[in-house]
Amino acid sequence: MDEDRRRAKQKRNQKRWLERQERSRLNRAEIRELRTRIEELRALLDSAEGGDRPGGNQKAAGEPPAYTHFNQLPLSQRTQLGLERGGYKRMTPIQSDALHLALAGYDVLGAAKTGSGKTLCFVVPVLERLFVEQWDTAMGVGALVLSPTRELALQIFKVLQLVGYKHTHSAALLTGGRDVEEERKRLAAISVIVGTPGRVLHHLEDDADLVTDNMQLFVMDEADRLLDMGFRDAICGIMRHLPTARQTLLFSATQTTDVQMLAQMSLRNQRYVTTHASTAAPTPATLCQNFIVVELHRKLDALLMFLKRHPNDKTVVFVSTCNQVRYMYLAFSKILKKMRIPSMCLTSKMKQFRREEVFLTFCRCKAAVLFCTDIAARGLDFPLVHWAVQYDCPDSAQTYIHRAGRTARAGARGVSLLFLTPQETPMLSFLAHKHIPLREIAIRPGLLQESKEIFVALVVQGLKYEAQKAFIAYLRSVYFSANKLVFDVNAIDFDAFAHSLGLLKVPNMAELRNLRRGAKNLPWDVVNYMARQEGQQEAQKQQHVTRREKHLGASDMFRTLQQKQRYAVRDDDDE
């Protein structure tokens, strides 16, 4: 009996060995064929380039792309199966222009509208390059992908897992908010790294097991955002650890001077690919863009009316600050819960595991509301978003473009709605200069219902602290905005704005001192205004003092009672 089991096990092992040998033979044959096709493609591109200068590969306007479907490219069977699994068949314009260049081994500087499918332009070349090179974990890290935010890095990692599910390469996600020691244990056997610059640089400087001497590809996604967020020094530090003989792919939604300088520093004999036209709108044609003009103290009323009218839609609401997001999420979650509309929030102050949970949950939802800051405005691909609502005015036209780009992605339809106060209407001229077509939606008088009582009740129930922090955070963001033609803190009606948040009055100085962190960097104009308001209230109290109260006020007993009364009133306010 034991002898029979031993023979059966031996036959199974022999069969598996033969299967592995056959797969290895087929892989070697496929790799030889791929190398031949790639060499032919490279020769064809070099001959087509002719005497043109390097970097002049930009297509002429109206020229049809050479490739329209993924199966026309020299791709391995494993990658084609991954693309079919993800539903990727027809290429977008940026993919059609950039993918064959990246597969041929050129350095690529790509620029395309948000939502145009830039992620596959570097995920596919990473998988193919490592497959053709027959990459093994003993050779170290073969590819490095940098992303400006943790959420975008997670999204790239998910696409890499989806398209490369048939490949045998190991991959790691390195972002802040995770256990460094747990990451360090796995780095010795990693072929592909996707991460944020700070955490990647930390491992490169501290971990001897992280070998990058043989790296084949270096990718920077959302390069303009990487520079805007202050990662220039980290990127330079990372490149000092990389070999010079590598392929570099750099993609961005906009081409700024800083991006061009980064390209000169990191790319060699690059090919520049863009889908932008000089007069074309920087947003997709399938995106319907609208704006409404509403007073600051009526914006919450307008947003509540909008969400009630679209209960079955998937909506992203952009707000300026983290404190505003927290207040609006806590307030609207209680209101929307009665209508069975799920809501969630996403800010940079949240723990990493919570941010990932919110991101993945919102991706799975068919109808939900996400309150977020501009951390979600770049690169994140939320599937099937119907509305991108910009509750607070963006600080620039580029910020507007990236916010609106969370909908109408990859050829789908979507709608963008911009909230503007009468003082913020000069922003329309900046958007018109960028050829952004906006249509105004007028709110009929009487249609906008007053909802101040709802927010007052929520503040009484425990949101007073969050409302005060939201009030201060918004004023601070307006005051420190660089565009003074659009943002003017002196034009804000402080009392009306405070009442719209459910506060009975503008937060006084004692409450501001209690807020501590929430009140840091408060503009002096705001502080002086609140001090004047407090002084006027004290003056009004003194004017109503009767003659008898003046007489009694001379006694120590009355002053003691008056002091106790003030303490009692202060305790009531704190509650």
Automatic annotation (TrEMBL):
GO terms for cellular component: nucleolus. The keyword Secreted does not apply. Residues 99-273 form the Helicase ATP-binding domain. It is found in: Nucleus, Nucleolus. The keyword Cell membrane does not apply. A motif (Q motif) lies at residues 68-96. Its EC number is 3.6.4.13. Belongs to the DEAD box helicase family. DDX10/DBP4 subfamily. eIF4F is a multi-subunit complex, the composition of which varies with external and internal environmental conditions. It is composed of at least EIF4A, EIF4E and EIF4G. Residues 299-452 form the Helicase C-terminal domain. Residues 68-96 form the DEAD-box RNA helicase Q domain. Transmembrane segments: none annotated. ATP-dependent RNA helicase required for ribosome biogenesis. Involved in the release of U14 snoRNA in pre-ribosomal complexes. Required for pre-rRNA cleavage at site A2. RNA helicase. Pfam families: CTE_SPB4, DEAD, Helicase_C. InterPro entries: DEAD/DEAH_box_helicase_dom, Helicase_ATP-bd, Helicase_C-like, P-loop_NTPase, RNA-helicase_DEAD-box_CS, RNA_helicase_DEAD_Q_motif, SPB4-like_CTE. This is ATP-dependent RNA helicase. The Q motif is unique to and characteristic of the DEAD box family of RNA helicases and controls ATP binding and hydrolysis.
